[in-house]
Amino acid sequence: MVIFEPGAGCGGGLGCKGLVLEPLLEIKAAAVARGYGAAGGRGLPLRPGAWKLHRRAPLAVPGLITTTSRKLDREQQDEHILEVTVTDNGTPPKSTIARVIVKILDENDNKPQFLQKFYKIRLPERERPERERNAKREPIYRVIATDKDEGPNAEISYSIEDGNEHGRFFIEPKTGVVSSKKFSGAGEYDILSIKAVDNGRPQKSSTTRLHIEWISKPKPSVEPISFEEPFFSFTVVESDPAAHMIGVISAEPPGTPLWFDITGGNYNSHFDVDKGTGTIIVAKPLDAEQKSNYNLTVEATDGTTTILTQ
Known about the structure:
four-stranded antiparallel sheet; Immunoglobulin-like
């Protein structure tokens, strides 16, 4: 029995990995009995018309299983388990069942999608230092895009496409963190067009805009700013998707404008914090086997005073 799904390496289309068995006896009666999901559990029926079993296959290959014209979608189901019943011509007829595992390979049929259609942030003005050449590049914001594909097709790179005529803004290609040495006064605006492109063939991309409004530094709070807890502890499941909210880093006094950043412990940039609310989210897929504990350092500032927590 030969199983294939038309595709790259299998003759065009999606491509697959199949289980190849020895040629069977002439098939008198054969039927796909049931289907299973990727976890091997029953109760996930085959999509009607997705598979065809040839009782007398061309080129003298008996028991050939092919796909039909219905498209397979790896993002919906990446593994199919088929059961084929084979009956001989004897008297009485005897039969056996073969289980066939078909793994659907990925093709680059999804483009990166940003978590927001556009981003709008308000940041405190940045004063020009006495020695401009010594100015450090400071992180401003992080944009995040996700891709439903897998492997290289889901690897995303970021770039600034427009709005950076003077080259004062930078973006980390792998994380989407935007930083700048720009000195901006209250009332100024910057609008950056940011592109996310995957590593598939052909490559797919999408764009978003980051609107930055520079505001006057708030007056220092009468009460010193502080976190509501000395330490924060949250739990996350490795299957939680990007943008899943993990928890909120809260500070006092209430109503004080604050800006948050993760300044340490963010291994491989798996997490992000909302600049204005302190909400921690998943930024990239997690793997508990690779790393199961993170100790993040979060910074909060009112534009004058800066505090840290873990």
